[in-house]
Amino acid sequence: MGGDIKMINRTSQQFLLSTIAVLVSSQLWAADAPAQEETKKDALGLERITVTGVARGTRVMDSSVSVSSVSLAELEVSTPRSSAEAFRIIPGMKVESTGGEGNANIAVRGLPVASGGAKFLQIQEDGLPILQFGDIAFGNADIFLRLDSTVQTIESIRGGSASTAASNAPGGIINVISKTGSSDAGSVSTTFGLDYDTFRTDFEYGTSINDSLRFHVGGFVRTGEGPRQAGYDANKGGQVKANITKEFDSGYVRLYFKHLDDKSIGYLPMPMYSDGSSVPGFNAKSDAIQSAYFLSTLSLGADGERRRGDMRDGMNPEVNSVGLEASFDLGNDWQVENRFRFSDVSGNFMAPFPAEVANGADIAASIAGTGAKLIYANGPDAGNPMDGLAMRIHTFDVKMNDFGSIVNDLKLTKTFDDTSVTLGYYNATQNINMTWMWNSYLMEVKGDNAALLDVVAADGTAYSGAGLYGYGVPYWGNCCQRNYDTEYNIKAPYLAVASSFGDLSLDASVRYDSGDASGYYAGNVQSQVDMNLDGVISIPEQSVSSIDNANPQPVNYDWSYTSYSLGANYQFSSDLAAFGRLSHGGRANADRLLFGKVRADGSVAKEDAVDNVDQYELGVKYRYEDLSVFATAFYSETEEQNFEATSQRFFDRKYKAKGIEIESAYFIGDFDFRGNVTWTDAEIAKDALTPDVVGNTPRRQADFIYSLMGRYNFDQGSVGINLIGTTDSYAQDNNGLKFDGYNQVNAFATYNLTQALSVSLNVNNLFDATGITEAEEGSIPDNNIIRARTINGRTTSATLKYEF
């Protein structure tokens, strides 16, 4: 097996890939299938008008864009436990959603995820980005997104057309579109866990006030421990969204509002054996490092003040946003559209990270010398010696002081017969103001409420107290007490032209992004501080990390880049079309340049400020009776500058990737089948800092990713199954440690008790599979224990829903 982490046998892998092949080639079945209703004949929505990533609404069959739409019904069958898990069924997306209800890593068609987040992808709500940068350290966009019953659909585009449709999004766009009260309807539903602790109520209602005025309002509230044992209610909070639309003879005006205040547990890598099995006392699929015996941490804040961090905050987004959308026909074939949003965003990120997993005696000796020992600091064995595996914990204690933004996107379109010209101007301001206040603790390796540990030297001297041995992170050179207050301004005029010549459609677009960054940042300084105010300077208090406010460093640089995209689509018949596209795009780098890439005067080298992406695509869209297929071949070359917080490493690389993305749907009688598979061949083409990895496969890049769904519909409800899977991939870029692919089976069933009342059963990871998405180690350590994140074990929930 070597360095492989075995999670699924090869027979199962072959069966699943065969299933994909059957799904894609299911035209063989379609020849004898009876005629279906029109919606079944267009299962992939090739006739719908797409609004994401295009200058103006375009029929998918006429578009040279790889676009997909996910309905609420499809989301239910995929049984997501977080917003990012809902994105797993989008073609071309490799979603690592093992961090909880946020902090997911999302890769698109082989574009890299070197340090987390979704760097080359933009996540939007109602056509505007949640954040301007998809990989802000400890501030991934999905942390500030919650899906609930207010969602109408999720629309996505992949590939180069996104380069000119949005700033900093050359890989793609995911747009979560809200209901607007276009139908007089509402619902209330309650979901509770059958084998894990969760309780949630969703509500939504929309209706017309009169002939020209309508509204929609909804949201959710919830509480519970979550899918892993945390020792406390780790998920608690809710959301309210509302919008009101006024229609006029020539257009409409819509006002949006969103309030989100939710706490969700953040899962970071956990100890497990390199073959994917659990270490004694810690179940990799159901346990968490969080514990009832580890709830608070004391540190110095941004201005040197004593403050306490609450481990129960987890990922705690606090969002208040107001948006305005308007669209009008000005006459004489002129159309104007404007989208505006003001967002007040702040919150916390609090989660324990295992910097080291080793024998407790070895960790004790590294801190207090030969003969040192560990004793339980709390819990049922408090005061007793501890002998076994221990963890050196770093608390990723981050205060997101201000992530607020102001965004406006204005576009004016003129139509000339079969040609439309759109001129637009995008303007945005993004604040990134945060404070890192990390500490170091010792903890036993144990699930279900692990205890903290103290280290005592051979002469009886205490080197820690209440489990804390360092105010800061001395194991990492006290790197990570940081504070920065930066502002990023973006301006982007853009032009798009689309023409039709019979069955041939051509489009071209160009976008010029320019921006500037201003502000300051400060690192750490060590000093002696009586943190607990007991009048005695303990060993940890002899060197306390705080923000070096006496030596702030300026941020003062600008950037610019030009993106362009050219596409063509030819419709051979009403059921067959082919398209091609070439694109050049860019992505400006933000906070990850700080503490290493920003010069003393605040400037940044041009090659560090912007990463460029070149992409080429060829695709085909095909329908035959009840079968629909959307296939795209792609090739990309990507530059990347990045910084990884957990390894304290910078990246300066170029990548190449090629592959094929296939999405298909088929109806037969009362059954419908949907699925997608993406094959990607990616490599590190150049590395200025670590040339040894050139030619290697990028970390966590699988050859195949897939999502398959089958559903049976009957008069009183439906039952379905969804398969999410990936083939094997490497843990790190050195390609030393490989973990095998996995297949996650999710199941869903609903039964209508009455016309308005239904009950549903939802099972995520039905067969309790292990599926590792990432690991800190690049090779197997001597003790055979790695730090990794795996998908959650089986969780089952029931939902009672009333629709009116």
Automatic annotation (TrEMBL):
Q: What is its main location?
A: membrane
Could you tell me the superkingdom of the organism this chain comes from? Bacteria
Q: Can you name this protein? A: Dependent receptor
InterPro entries xref list: Beta-barrel_TonB (IPR000531), Beta-barrel_TonB_sf (IPR036942), Plug_dom (IPR012910), Plug_dom_sf (IPR037066), TonB-dep_rcpt-like (IPR039426)
Native species of this protein? Shewanella decolorationis S12
State the membrane topology.
Answer: Multi-pass membrane protein
Family designation: Belongs to the TonB-dependent receptor family.
| Compartment list | Cell outer membrane
